[in-house]
Design goal:
The complex is a heterodimer of chains A (403) and B (137). Chain A is mainly α and 403 residues long. Chain A is 68% helix and 3% strand. By secondary structure, chain B is mostly helical.
Chain lengths: 403, 137
């Protein structure tokens, strides 16, 4: 072989020779996501691994997402045809199995539960209703996605529509868990939309909150929450797991792991040795899973799947889902304001959108604009964490009906 | 599947889905109400007033000993019946913490609260934390 032929052969193995325009565009999209994560601070914990995963998944010829190649051979001992692995799959193909098999999102929920204080929710059980109302965004977006086929090139099946609707739950792990089961090809755009809009909660929510409430309602100062006993804190996760899983078994992985994390957190006061497990759940475990989840999700966003009109539909519907979820929570908050004789500030209803703790902070910030001595943060944390349970239940419903 | 079929599916899913979500969460809410009765503590102490209400006590029975020249009355406690004698430095520290948490602009506090540089060694940070914990209420 001459040197010229060797050089040509080498050039043909380079990624440049095999790059398509879609891959080039997706590499640009990856750079944008990384920019948003680093420079603008858009949920960097997830958006940075996702952005880098998009880059890795769209590198031509790298084969990071390539499945293993099997060939059928005859076993010399038994004489039977067996499958033998001829080529190992790519790195991210194997990491992706954690999503495909529904492992990563529940593990993330374990960490979330370990970091979440359900005290405000236990002290004010009515918050659960606000968390439920905010899930309205999921189902209205589901309808919207189904009806979007009047736009050319955009048509979603019920499973795809459910994966888009769950964006309105503002819960990344839940969205990924549901989408991986119902419409795995939409994982990339759904995850990117979900985490981007979660970062935009402080921009999306306040105008809706102000539109739907009066000045008098926004100024309501709520009564201080009661103290919650240690027994209640420990019994809560056990009972919620059992109750929700018996009613809706499909929600068991998410709700169960969320509550296990919370039980670890609350049980430390009785058995300090459990602090080891708690620290692991809060730190190492969730950090490791976050990296693997983010990279795997990003790598699924290939050019042909991401660069089409349906992605635009998903992005538009994502905003709609957040907006309707916020409105649903605030409107129920208004009803509770009236039925309680003015004791409930409707602004905390917007925190039912389960972007913890961002949505609760937004309630606090908007409330303080109208009454500087008003501290709504802890009151808003009740609906905020209720929304996590609510979105997991909603995902369980969708999975039961459409899975 | 035509548009009407899709709308039909959508509406059924919405009614069923929201209904189940509400029912589950109402059930949990009822359980929590039951727990409160079974395991809960009573109201938090916040609603109680501070017993040594200094501004109010100023007019009470004057002690036999002559009082020192009256200082200006302490700040009228706003909504949350605050303890009568919160030092300004404590108030400033609390407001600085709240501002930092909310990422609000730095307030002009009196006395001024200065953010310490974050370039301490591990042992320096441990010592600082130890001091803070020792002063914890």
């Amino acid at each position: 072989m001459s040197i010229g032929e060797s050089i040509l052969r080498f050039l043909e193995t380079m990624g440049f020779a095999a790059m398509t325009w879609q891959q080039a565009v997706m590499i640009g999209v990856a750079c944008i996501l990384i920019y948003l994560a680093l420079k603008k601070g858009f949920e960097p914990l997830l958006l940075l691994p996702i952005g880098f995963g998009v880059l890795l998944g769209n590198l031509p010829l790298a084969g990071l997402m390539a499945p293993p190649v099997y060939e059928t051979v005859i076993d010399p001992r038994t004489g039977q045809a067996v499958q033998e692995m001829k080529e190992v799959g790519g790195l991210i193909y194997y990491l992706y199995q954690g999503i495909k098999l529904g492992i990563y999102p529940p593990l993330i929920f374990l960490g979330v539960g370990a970091m979440t204080d359900f005290g405000p929710l236990i002290a004010n059980p009515r918050s659960l209703l606000l968390g439920a109302a905010a899930q309205f965004g999921i189902f209205t977006t589901f309808i919207g996605a189904l009806l979007l086929d009047f736009l050319p090139g955009i048509s979603f099946s019920p499973q795809e529509a459910a994966s888009i609707g769950i964006i309105g739950g503002a819960d990344g792990p839940t969205a990924i868990y549901l989408t991986a089961r119902l419409a795995p090809h939409l994982l990339g755009p759904v995850a990117v939309a979900a985490y981007s809009y979660m970062a935009l909660v402080p921009l999306i929510q306040p105008p809706i909150m102000k539109l739907l409430t009066t000045k008098k309602e926004r100024e309501v100062v709520m009564e201080e929450l009661r103290e919650v006993s240690r027994t209640e804190r420990i019994v809560f996760p056990i009972v919620v797991t059992a109750a929700v899983s018996l009613i809706l078994p499909a929600a068991a992985p998410l709700v169960g792991m969320l509550m296990l994390g919370n039980l670890l957190r609350e049980a430390v006061s009785m058995q300090p040795i459990l602090n080891r497990l708690l620290k692991t759940a809060q730190n190492e475990l969730i950090n490791i899973v976050t990296i693997l989840l983010g990279v795997s999700v990003g790598a699924t966003a290939s050019g042909p799947l991401f660069l089409n009109p349906r992605t635009l539909g998903i992005i538009l519907l994502g905003v709609f889902a957040f907006a309707v979820g916020t409105a649903g929570g605030v409107l129920l908050g208004k009803i509770m304001y009236r039925t309680s004789g003015g004791k409930v500030n409707p602004l905390i209803g917007s925190a039912g959108v389960s972007a913890v703790p961002m949505a609760a902070r937004v309630s606090q910030t908007v409330g303080q604009q109208y009454n500087p001595s008003n501290f709504l943060l802890m009151h808003a944390m009740g609906p905020n964490v209720a929304g996590v349970i609510g979105s997991a239940v909603a995902a369980g419903v969708l999975l039961s009906m459409l899975g | 599947m035509d548009t009407w079929e899709k709308l039909d599916i959508g509406l059924v899913m919405t009614v069923l889905g929201m209904g189940i979500v509400f029912l589950v969460l109402i059930f949990l809410s009822s359980l929590l109400g039951f727990f409160e009765r079974l395991f809960g503590t009573r109201r938090s102490p916040a609603a109680q007033e501070p017993k040594p209400a200094a501004p109010a006590a100023a007019e009470e029975k004057p002690p036999p000993l002559p009082r020192p020249p009256s200082k200006p009355a302490p700040e009228p406690a706003p909504a949350a019946a605050a303890p009568a004698a919160l030092r300004p430095a404590v108030v400033a520290a609390v407001m600085a913490a709240v501002s930092a948490y909310l990422q609000a602009e730095a307030l002009a506090l009196e006395p001024p609260v200065k953010r310490l540089p974050d370039d301490l060694s591990f042992w320096g940070r441990a010592a600082r934390l130890d001091q803070m914990m020792a002063r914890r209420l």
